[in-house]
Write a structure and sequence with these properties.
This protein has about 280 residues and is mainly beta. It has two domains: about 25-200, Nucleic acid-binding proteins (OB fold (Dihydrolipoamide Acetyltransferase, E2P), Beta Barrel), CATH 2.40.50.140; about 225-270, Ribosomal protein L2, domain 3 (Irregular). The chain is about 5% helix and about 25% strand. The two termini are about 30 Å apart.
Length: about 280
Amino acid sequence: MPIKIYRPVTKGRRISSVDAFTDITKFEPEKSLVYAKKRASGRNAQGKITVRHRGGGAHRYVRIVDFKQDKYDIPAKVAALEYDPGRGSRIALLFYKDGEKRYIIAPTGLAVGDEVISSRNLVEIKPGNRMPLSQIPVGVAVHNIELSPGTGGMVARGAGLGAQYMALEGDFAQLKLPSGEVRRFSKNCLATIGMVGNPDHRLVRWGKAGRTRHRGRRPEVRGKVMNPVDHPHGGGEGKHPIGLKHPKTLWGKPALGVKTRDKKKTSWKLIVKRRK
C-alpha cells in the first residue's frame, strides 16, 4: 500500500498523508458479512464512561472476519481484497468450493485468484494457508495465532505484524512476537502463514484534528494545563512541571511506565523472554 502525499495547499495538507488504496479490488463490502456498528462512545451497559475520549466519528459497518478459519480441507479462492474501517490491514473475501463466503485478514503477497486452505495436517507453506504450529517449519513467519487450541486467532493480527517461529520443544512451540517477547504456545494452536498485509499503515500521518474526529477520537487534554480540582498535575503559573515525585492518573494512581501486569497471572510460565 503506497502512501499518497498531496500538494500542500492548506496547513492541514502540509503535514498529512493518506492511504492510496491502490491494492483494493472491491469497494463495497459483502452484504451477508457486515452489520451496523452500534455506537457505545466509550460507555458500559450502565451508561458510564469507561474509556475516555471516545465518541462521534463516521458511521461504519463491522466486517465479520473469520479468525478461526475452521473450514478444514476445503479450498477457497480469493475473490477480492477489501478495505476494513475497523483495522489497519486489508481483508480478503474468500469463496469456498461449497459456496460459503468468508472474510480473513489478508497477508502480504496474497492476490485475487490465489487459493488458500486451512487444515490440521501439513499443507503447502504459502501466505494464507493455516495449520497447527506442529506442522509449520521452524523459521517461518506466522500471524493470527491462537492462544489456546480452538479459540481463534488472537495474536499478531495488526497491519504489517507477524511472529517468528523460533523452536519446537515437546508440546510447545516458541514464537518471537512483534513486541520482542518470546512466548510458548501449544503446538496444537493454529496459525496462518505469512505477515499481515498493508505494512505502510503506520506511516499515515493524520495531519489535523478533524481526521482524528472522523475516527471516533475526541480531544485529549494534558493534566498539567488543568486546575488542581480537575487533575493531580493541575495548578501553578505558566508552563510549569507537574511538581510531584512521579506522574499520576486523573484518579491519583501512578502512571507512565508503571508495570501493570498481574504478578499472579498464570501465563507467566509461558513467557520465555519478556519484551524490551
